[in-house]
Design a protein that fits this description.
Blueprint (H helix, E strand, L loop, with lengths): L1 H25 L19
């Protein structure tokens, strides 16, 4: 039972991280360019 609870909690955290990454990407931010694609010269795409 404990394993199932930990697995569900971990899946929730991973889901939130992915959701945040997708949201940032749609807003024009990128991890590769220091969270600001406007100043990378177009290398983020």
């Amino acid at each position: 039972m404990g394993t199932v609870i930990v697995l569900l909690a971990l899946a929730g955290v991973v889901g939130l991280i992915i959701r945040s990454m997708v949201k940032d990407k749609k807003a024009g931010k990128s991890v590769q360019c220091g969270q600001n694609c406007k100043h990378c010269g177009g290398h983020c795409h």
